[in-house]
Amino acid sequence: MTKKLICIGGLPGVGKTEVANRLSQNILNNLVICPDELRLEMLGKNPKQDVLTDADITDETTRKVIAVMLDRAELALQNDKVVIIGSAFVSQSMRQDYEAMAKKLSAPFHGVWLELDDMSRIQRTEKRKNDYLDTKTKGLKRGKNPSIVTCVNAALEVEGDIRWPIIDASPSAESVLQAVQEELRL
To answer: For residue range 99-146, what is the model confidence (pLDDT) as tens digits?
Structure first.
C-alpha cells in the first residue's frame, strides 16, 4: 500500500487506540501514532510500563506532543508509509492541519470519528487497569448526578463540525474495526 494518512478521532474511551493498532496489523509499511504513548516517550517514560499522571498532562506538553505527532506523520508520509493516528482530534484546526498536510504531500486522507455515549465511555475508561492509557482522571468525571458526565479537561470539548464519517463505537471491537475498514475501503 502506498502512502496514506488515516486519522481516527473521538473522545476518551471510544476505542481509537485499539482500532489504530488493529488496523496496523493488516497494513504493511505503517506507522501508528498514539499521543499518550508519545507523551510518555517524550517524558522519558516507558509507554508499556508507566502511567500518565496529572503532572504529565500540561498545556505545554500537549502542544509539544501535537507538534511531534505532526512532524512524525509528515516524515513517515514523505517516506511513503501509511500513517495511522488515533487521537481525540477535538480541535477543528488540528483536524484541518492533518488534512492539509496530506494534501500538500499528495497522500490520500481518511478520517473517521468514533462515537459512543458518555456512560459507555466512562465504563470503558474505568475498566482500564495500569496500562499506558490509564490516568488518574481518565478524561471523564461524574457529577453529583451520575447520569451527567463532563470532560475533566476543557480542551476535550469538540470544536466545530465533525466532517469525517461517524462510526458507532458501541458494538464489539471486531464490529467497529470492520466498520472502519469498510469506511476506509481497506
So the answer is: 999 999 999 999 999 999 888 887 777 776 554 444 444 444 434 443
Quote the number of domains for the chain. 1
CA gap 41, 123 in Å, rounded: 27
C-alpha to C-alpha distance for 94 and 117, rounded to whole angstroms: 23
Phi, psi torsion values for 174, nearest 5 degrees: -65, -40
SS3 183: helix
The domain that holds 69 is classified in CATH as 3.40.50.300
The Cα–Cα gap between 5 and 114 comes to 17
Domain range holding 28?
4-184
Amino acid making up residue 23: L
> What pTM did the predictor assign?
0.84
Tally of CB atoms within 10 A around 149:
16
Residue 83 identity: V
**Closest among 60, 62, 29 to 135, alpha carbons compared:** 62
